[in-house]
Amino acid sequence: MSANRITIAVDGYSSCGKSTLARALAQALDYLYIDTGAMYRAVTLYTLEQGIDPHDWNAVASLLPSIRIRFESAAGGPITLLNDRRVEDRIRNMDVSRNVSPIATIPAVRRKMVEQQREMGRAAGVVLDGRDIGTVVFPNAPVKLFLTADLEERVCRRQKQLEESGKEITALEIRRNLLERDYIDSTRSDSPLRKAHDAILIDNTNLTPIEQLAVCLAIVKARI
């Protein structure tokens, strides 16, 4: 499969395992993985650290020239760096999760992130995951996957992820956060979350990560 290196777009709802799948695909194919969600989380973290209201579009936009995001390779996958500071763990905290969707609705932020994503993914052989990869960032990607799962399964996955990192959050708070993010992501005017017409829908409610990877690798192989 290395002879024809392509762009793979992975979109879907929060806590559907987009990053897990994208990382695994990139590793299996020896592709570059670009965590676009981490980029929006990094902008959110910087906004909060500066004491800026995430709903103040103009104030957030004024911060963008001061924000530099890049990824550093590591054994467990790429590490997010915000202005050369490692923030991979910090951007997964609930204060960032609660505010990332409002930040991601800001047109200036989306334009800046899409510009950077296209630059990083210019060379073939990349896997990107997010909300608008197959519809906006790389609408001509040869492989587009759209992930979904039952809400309660997503809550369980998110809670387990947080507990493993030492954070105790109630299932109720997680459920509210996911529902709010789903609504904001799906109804925003700029690049809303939606399935591309040619994306392959994958409901992974009852799939293990290994099973899901096998399904998606078969799809990639068929397209190549």
Written account of the structure:
It is a single chain. The protein is of the alpha/beta class and about 220 residues long. It has one domain: 3-Layer(aba) Sandwich (Rossmann fold). It contains nine helices and eight strands. It has helices at about 20-30, 35-50, 55-65, 95-105, 105-120, 135, 150-165, 170-185, 210-224; strands at about 5-10, 30-35, 70, 80, 85, 125-130, 145-150, 200-205. Strands 2-6-1-7-8 form a five-stranded parallel sheet. Strands 3-4-5 form a three-stranded antiparallel sheet, covered by helices on one side. It is globular and about 50 Å long. The model has no long low-confidence stretch (mean pLDDT about 90).
Give a short synopsis of this structure.
The chain has helices at residues 18-29, 36-49, 57-63, 94-104, 107-120, 133-137, 151-164, 171-187, 209-223; strands at residues 7-12, 32-35, 69-72, 79-82, 85-86, 126-130, 143-148, 200-203.
Structural class: alpha/beta
Q: Mind telling me the C-alpha Rg?
A: 17 Å
Taken from the alpha-carbon principal axes, the silhouette is globular
> Please, how many helices?
9
- The helical percent reads 40-55%
Look up the CATH topology.
Rossmann fold
Task: Please count the beta strands (DSSP E, at least 2 residues each).
Answer: 8
Counted up, domains total 1
Largest sheet: 5 strands, parallel
Alpha carbon gap, first and last residue: 7 Å
Following the backbone from N to C, one meets helices and strands in this order, namely: EHEHHEEEHHEHEHHEH
Using the coordinates above, name the CATH class: Alpha Beta
What percent strand?
Answer: 15-25%
How would you write the strand order of the largest sheet? 2-6-1-7-8
The CATH superfamily label reads P-loop containing nucleotide triphosphate hydrolases
CATH architecture: 3-Layer(aba) Sandwich
Poorly predicted ranges (pLDDT <50, ≥5 residues)? none
